[in-house]
Write a structure and sequence with these properties.
Largest sheet: none
Number of domains: 2
Shape: globular
Structural class: mainly alpha
Order of helices and strands: HHHHHHHHHHH
Helix content: over 70%
Radius of gyration: 23 Å
Distance between the termini: 63 Å
Number of strands: 0
Length: about 260
């Protein structure tokens, strides 16, 4: 043979698209890519976290405790529910069970996303990545065509985490210097925020609208019905959430949503 076959070097050897861990991952490049994709998420988190800070402080929680909650949690709805139960002096069991039911979706998200993580990722790195999983970061990460590196995920969650903490800090500190009457009136911001989150989805999906109305109806019953209103806020949230989800799963299968 005139031209002997050239052996493929380690650098030239192609890697599998399903297993990009075979190639040399550039932490800086991956981190920068994730950081860029996390900016819109962070901008969306700031006003929501601002509302959380207002709600927590207006309900009697110390501004520094509210900020600490956001620094150690990134759970949005779970934080709102947990803070509300703390304000109403619910039992630890109610707070634990309520936040577990609300946040259980993160377990499913983590299991799903674990299939896309580079296999060689260390356990401690996986733990850090799981801390930053939210509805938004999960959606962005799951749409990636290749496996996810630690650098990419760290970049993706950095700005959202900072935005959530910043929003809470601003809301908590601003509310703490407002007059008491104005602090109490800030509670309406929580309801306005949830309406703003729910209406767009309800307008696009009949299933989302129906499930929302069922949850609202159940919550209203627990608030005004003579016997049901004796049930604590924590159990009311748990029952309304589970019931609405079950009805939605039965009458609106995935293919119909």
């Amino acid at each position: 043979m005139l031209f002997p076959k050239k052996e493929t070097s380690e650098v030239e050897r192609p890697y599998s698209k399903r297993n990009p861990s075979k190639h040399q991952s550039d932490f800086g490049t991956d981190f920068g890519s994730g950081l860029q994709k996390g900016i819109p998420i962070a901008l969306g988190y700031i006003p929501v976290a601002f509302t959380f800070g207002l709600m927590a402080v207006s309900g009697g929680i110390s501004p520094w405790i509210a900020i600490l909650i956001s620094l150690t949690n990134l759970t949005s709805a779970g934080q709102f529910a947990g803070a509300r139960l703390i304000i109403t002096e619910a039992s630890l069991f109610e707070i634990t069970l309520t936040t577990f039911v609300i946040n259980i979706r993160y377990l499913l998200m983590s299991l799903s996303l674990s299939q896309k993580i580079i296999p060689e990722t260390a356990f401690i790195k996986r733990g850090i990545m799981s801390f930053g999983i939210t509805d938004e970061t999960f959606t962005v990460a799951s749409l990636e065509k290749h496996d996810i590196s630690f650098g990419y995920m760290l970049g993706l969650i950095s700005f959202p985490y900072g935005g959530w903490a910043l929003g809470t800090t601003l809301g908590a500190l601003i509310c703490s210097v407002l007059p008491k009457a104005l602090q109490n009136s800030m509670g309406i911001a929580l309801y306005a925020m949830f309406i703003a989150l729910i209406v767009p989805s309800a307008k696009k999906s009949r299933a989302a609208l129906t499930i929302t109305l069922i949850a609202v109806a159940l919550s209203s019953l627990f608030n005004w019905a003579p016997y049901l209103k004796q049930i604590s806020a924590g159990w009311s949230i748990i029952i309304a959430t589970i019931t609405a989800c079950i009805i939605g799963a039965l009458f609106f299968p995935r293919e119909e949503v």
